Amino acid sequence: MDYRRNALRQYWVAAKLLLFMTVVLGVLYPLAITGVAQLAFPAQANGSPVRADGILVGSHLIGQRFVDADGAALPEWFQSRPSAVDYDGGASSGSNLGPEDPDLVDAIGQRRRAVADLEGVAAASVPADALTASASGLDPAISPAYARLQIARVAAARGLDEAEVAALVESRIQGGDLGYLSEPTVNVLELNIALADLDSND
């Protein structure tokens, strides 16, 4: 009987500890961290939303496509890099194909020809980030080289001065993290919002 009583006492202590830790770590701690995040970093805590004219149009952290109903690139917008998951945040992933995989090689060849035709340039001048998807499939940014490649096409499609669009692109180039941890980038969604503002002011 003493053995059973001791065992029951231990089970009761364990159950109380489990309940206590569940409340503290499963309820109070997440609520506290959420509250601190909402107070100190509200934009980041809510997904880094991007708004245009007060309307939610996307996230600073997730890319999106600028295409028509048939999936063709809209010439009046800067285009993002490819995505293996069509920028679906719930399915973040790369293609997971090796560099010599026939499917990847074929996809890169098709993208190279498509971008070269869209921009009216030689295939050899198409930057790598216009051809390959990022590891996450959600990358919102492109290289300055890819952004500059698109200037002439976007300016012509909108009837804007090419130098004005080029200046806009240069103003949107963001340096690497801490100035050295990554390459400079251009956030495509934010660039396109600025482009729309530029177009509406002309």
Please give a structural write-up:
- The protein is mainly α and 202 residues long.
- The protein folds into two domains: 46 residues; 154 residues, no CATH class.
- It is built from seven helices and five strands.
- The strands form two sheets. It has a three-stranded antiparallel β-sheet. A two-stranded antiparallel ribbon has the order 1-2.
- It is elongated and about 90 Å long.
List the helices and strands and how they pair.
Elements: H1 2-40, H2 42-45, E1 49-52, E2 55-59, H3 102-119, E3 141-142, H4 144-149, H5 151-158, H6 162-171, E4 173-174, E5 185-187, H7 188-201
Antiparallel strand pairs: 1-2, 3-5, 4-5
In short:
With 202 residues, the chain is mainly α.
Fill in the keyword field for this structure.
202 residues; two-stranded antiparallel sheet; 5 strands; 8% strand; elongated
* Biggest sheet architecture: 3 strands, antiparallel
Query: What form results from the Cα inertia axes?
Result: elongated
Number of strands: 5
- What count of structural domains? 2
Category from helices, strands and their pairing: mainly alpha
Q: If strands are numbered along the chain, what order do they take across the biggest sheet?
A: 3-5-4
Backbone CA Rg? 25 Å
Task: Give the DSSP E fraction (strand runs of 2 or more residues).
Answer: 5-15%
Q: Ranges with pLDDT <50 over ≥5 residues?
A: none
| Individual helix count | 7
The helicity comes to 40-55%
Distance between the termini: 90 Å
Order of helices and strands: HHEEHEHHHEEH
Give average pLDDT, whole number.
88
